[in-house]
Amino acid sequence: MAGRQPVLLRLVACALAIAATDSAAAASAPPDAAAPAGAWHQREAAIMGTRIAVELWSRTPAEGEAAIDAVMEEMHRVDALMSHYKPESQLSRINAHAAAGPVRVDRELFDLIARSLDFSRLTGGAFDITYASVGYLYDYRHHVKPDEAQIEAHLPSVDWRSLELDPKSSTVRFMKPGMRIDLGGFAKGYAVDRSIELLKARGIEHASVSAGGDTRILGDRFGRPWIVGIRHPDDPKRVILRIPLENIALSTSGDYERYFDENGVRYHHIIDPRTGHSASKVRSATIIGPTATQTDGLSKTAFVVGPEKALEILARIPDIDAVFVGPDGKVYYSPGLAPPTR
Ligand code: ADP
Ligand code: MG
For the residues 46-69, what does the mean pLDDT come to? Predict the structure, then answer.
């Protein structure tokens, strides 16, 4: 909103100035002269099938380590609630029983499922947690994909409008047989947001929390922004853009995260709910916005509807910016991030 936009514009000028450089370490080195007594603390862990990275400033090491412990615990908690790999998770119970009748779930999970429907509405169905009705037939690690007959048989069950939610009883019901849901499209963003809330409650004012491609940033680095790089889709070491950020979230989705190539086709983990095939209208999409739940949920849109239509959709949502890399390497920016034309 009004408070954020000037910051973003200022940051963008800076992003463009340094986009071509490759000195990540130098760019993100903390100018601690302006900092009060205390120190940066950081840790990485493998949770939710991804790399979790936390960096924060605290007055004492004990306070910093305890805050990082709390974040890691929260990541495990969200994972246990939503994982479809764990048969005992509430999500797995929904998938096993919701076609037969309403399944009661914790309010937190209920609210998230309800929230997913908001993203479905906003994106014209590009974001659809029932994509899993077909999505479960893919196994990227083992190069398994459904054939056309399987897709045709399962595609009618991909339909967010057939998810029946009853807020009074906190129940979820599938109105079509063969439906499945998967919250992987925004679970990491949600876990990152929860983590930032936990840190704030502990009095932490400067932090960055990432779960794979989903990052949220709290505060600045004492007078300087945090620098977040967007990688090239084909080369993890090449950075196409560095964006300086403060108090904001950023998610990048790419077709290079979980995939296999066969006969010149890339099969990857973002599925077009209309076709049941991998959605390939962009190679990568980065969304910048107030919360990581939002940026994560919106980062699938351009893959499904293409960059131009995605920019139209995103322009209707307050405080959202985007950078897409098209199949031919062309980079698309939302108006708030576009480089000035000469
Ligand atoms: P990550 O899982 O690393 O955060 P993304 O943010 O790109 O990666 O999200 C990809 C995940 O989104 C997939 O693994 C899957 O769980 C989920 N997903 C795939 N297609 C859709 C879709 N059309 N709508 C909602 N979620 C999707
Ligand atoms: Mg994500």
Answer: 97
Question: pLDDT tier at 23 (50, 70, 90 boundaries)?
Answer: very low
Q: In the structure, what pLDDT confidence band is assigned to residue 31 with cuts at 50, 70 and 90? A: low
Instruction: Give the residue, by CA position, lying nearest to ligand 1 atom 5.
Output: 253
Residue from 133, 138, 282, 300 to probe ligand 1 pocket by mutation (most atoms less than 8 Å from CB): 300
Question: Ligand 1: which residues within 6 Å by Cβ?
Answer: 50, 127-129, 131, 182, 184-185, 188, 212-214, 251, 253, 257, 269-271, 273, 296, 299-300
Percentage of residues in the chain with pLDDT exceeding 70?
A: 89
- pTM: predicted TM-score of the whole model, two decimal places: 0.91
Q: Which atom, in ligand 1's list, is nearest to the CA of 257?
A: 3
Both 240 and 310 in one domain: the answer is yes
Ligand 1 centroid, distance to 300 Cα (angstroms): 7
- The answer to whether residue 52 sits within a structural domain is no
Alpha helices in 174-281 (DSSP H): 187-201
Same domain, 165 and 253: no
Which ligand is the nearest neighbour of the Cα of 216?
2
CA distance 15 to 228: 10
**Domain range for 16:** 5-21+223-333
Closest ligand by atom to 134 CA: 1
Residue 11 sits in the same domain as residue 98: no
Q: pLDDT band for 339, please (50, 70, 90 cuts).
A: confident
- What's the order of all strands across the beta sheet hosting 171-174? 103-104, 171-174, 163-166
Cα–Cα distance, 66 to 22 (Å, whole number): 34
Per the prediction, the chain carries an average pLDDT of 90
- The pairing of strands 248-254 and 259-262 is unpaired
* Backbone φ, ψ for residue 24 (5° rounding): -55, -45
Residue recorded with tokens 């807020």 = 167
Number of separate domains in the chain? 2
Write phi, then psi, for 210 (nearest 5 degrees): -125, 140
- State the Cα–Cα distance between residues 231 and 241, nearest whole angstrom: 7
Most ligand 1 atoms within 8 A of CB, residue of 182, 188, 230 to mutate? 182
Integer Cα distance of 294 and 290 in angstroms: 7
